[in-house]
Amino acid sequence: KLSKRLEAVAKFIPSGATIADIGSDHAYLPCYLVHKGIVLHAIAGEVVKGPYESAVKQVQKEGLAAKITVRLADGLAAIEPTDHVDTVAIAGMGGPLIVAILEKHPEKLQGVTRLILQPNIHAKVIREWALAHNWAILDEEILEEDDKIYEIVVLQRGQMELSDAEILVGPRLSQRQSPTFIKKWQREKENWQRVLHAIEEAEQTPEIEEKRAELTALIHLVEGV
Ligand code: SAM
């Protein structure tokens, strides 16, 4: 059974898509998608040998070797033109690593029309990357599993405008104001306030002053959403 997190990622894969799951680990996501008949073909990419071997094993065990190609490759290098990949999923990593993967082989995204990105932390950098590279937010999701809160950002090609607050918290998520969304930003705000109180006692240096300004700005931003 797929985790609640990966199940939420799977919901954004269009039926009939040709997908590349980058950083696939056990290839659970592509196996699930093929079993459900959502996709016919998938690529599972892994850069680390151990997880790559786990993916190969899992695909063989499930009898899906004809439909899922597992490749040992760095990020988008797992995608070949003859794959005709139109959808890329990158899940379970930090936002900055996801962005680094997207930026390293941009030519591999030529035929790709949808990106489903699930950063464990710092979703903000993904929205910044999208803004700068002509991708627009199609949808977003936020969910909690095992006491961790995860965000999913779904992108399609196009332009968008986002405020600073929307870049931080997500435009769709802030429109919806789900209990998980409120919980996440309440938590973050309390953390920032804790740090702010702690540094109020600290010596006044330019660095501390900068940190104080940054935290105050962040608190203001989330109070406005
Ligand atoms: N995507 C799965 C999920 O969401 O459950 C696995 C997440 S796992 C925490 C992250 C995986 O990404 C690891 O198996 C790691 O080896 C792989 N990874 C990290 N950097 C990568 C890169 N540049 N290219 C391909 N895979 C990468």
UniProtKB/TrEMBL annotation:
<dbReference type="GO" id="GO:0160105">
    <property type="term" value="F:tRNA (adenine(22)-N1)-methyltransferase activity"/>
</dbReference>
<dbReference type="GO" id="GO:0032259">
    <property type="term" value="P:methylation"/>
</dbReference>
<dbReference type="InterPro" id="IPR029063">
    <property type="entry name" value="SAM-dependent_MTases_sf"/>
</dbReference>
<keyword id="KW-0489">Methyltransferase</keyword>
<keyword id="KW-0808">Transferase</keyword>
<dbReference type="Pfam" id="PF04816">
    <property type="entry name" value="TrmK"/>
</dbReference>
<dbReference type="InterPro" id="IPR006901">
    <property type="entry name" value="TrmK"/>
</dbReference>
<protein>
    <submittedName>
        <fullName>SAM-dependent methyltransferase</fullName>
    </submittedName>
</protein>
